[in-house]
Amino acid sequence: MIALKMVNDMAERNLDFDTVVNRRNTRSLKYDFAKRRGKPEDVLPLWVADMDFKTSSYIEDALVERAHEAIFGYSESDTPYFEIIQKWMKEQHGWNVEERWLIKTPGVVFALAMAIKAYTNEGDSVLLQSPIYYPFCETIEDNKRKAVSSDLYLGEDNRYHIDFEDFENKVKENKVKLFFLCNPHNPVGRVWSKEELTRLGDICVKYNVTVLSDEIHHDFIFKGEHTTFASIKKEFENISITCTSPSKTFNLATMLISNIFIPNTQLRRAFRKQKDAAGVSQLSVMGLVATEAAYSKGLEWFKAVHAYIKKNIEYVEEYVKNELEGVNLVDSEGTYLLWLDFRNTGLSHEELDRRLVYEAKLWLDSGSIFGEKGEGFQRINVACPRSTLEEALKRIKTVLEKKDNRADIITFMKSPATGSHAKAQ
Length: 425
Description:
Number of domains: 2
Helix content: 25-40%
Structural class: alpha/beta
Strand content: 5-15%
Strand order of the largest sheet: 2-10-9-8-7-3-4
Shape: globular
CATH topology of the largest domain: Aspartate Aminotransferase, domain 2
Order of helices and strands: HEHHEHEHEEEHEHEHEHEHHHEEHEEEHH
Number of helices: 15
CATH architecture of the largest domain: 3-Layer(aba) Sandwich
Number of strands: 15
Distance between the termini: 30 Å
Oligomer: single chain
Largest sheet: 7 strands, mixed
């Protein structure tokens, strides 16, 4: 049993989200690897989905206390670990999970790969909804499967929607066995309603399609209400692999731990078989300790960071509306990743990328990496101090107001790392 030791049951300390934490020279993927990825070293990064905030002090204390034991042998979780997660899922999402459903993995992308191997064969089609979190497509293709998209469309209400007729046709025409659902959706920020999920689920049940539901962002809901796909109907529970993790909620990506829930015994056995074949057994003890501390002690911190990010989103909404001519912020319902539409600026997506990187010295996620439907968009991470966000938006405004400047475009187009990205949420 992993003993979760706290130094003191003191008040939460890490609630200052305005102070800028210097993350350079900390081996940060976000800050320290710009040059390797073809970007200027002094670029301001708001791309990969981790926060620029210190996590809960209770998590900090738990990790320090565990480190003082100074023995890091093989470790495993037991029932108290599950009970802490079970309580969070019940109280925050109204979902009753069972211990036997749980399989721990080093991350959600790893779980995607295991599901592909477990439920499809080489050459089979896996369905997704573009524009989509780019490792979905990469993981499908890396495992020699075919990625098929039922594209989302941007409606007059400034939200993305599902073309259900197209979805069903894609399932039938491609004999789809596995569907990757992103709920909430990254990068477009939709929180799918229970009605929308029910329509999708009914189609998947009809055609015997297994659904992997990536719900890693489920705690960051700003409009509407998150619905766990597997909780809607018993039939949905029976075809579901639900992927969760404390990594987004508590900024714990480097702890390499995700909690995957698979109620169906046959699906669970097939998934576990692939996980075992990949050589993964026990995970990091620090990941286990951090997860227990997060879900048992981190609620105050989470509520505070949620409120701060909500205000950041509102700030971006006002700034885009009043200061960025030709730019539209797609209505954001969930995640701390906003989807900016630059298509009315008159810039090609290549020129937009160049200006942002080389003139604004700003590193966002180019919409093109999320699929063809993402061209002309940019994804921006707003889980940062307000001053950082203000500076980023000012830089965007400055380059949009400049006349065309061709400097550095040759360097940009020839850079071997242009367009490269990490398999990170």
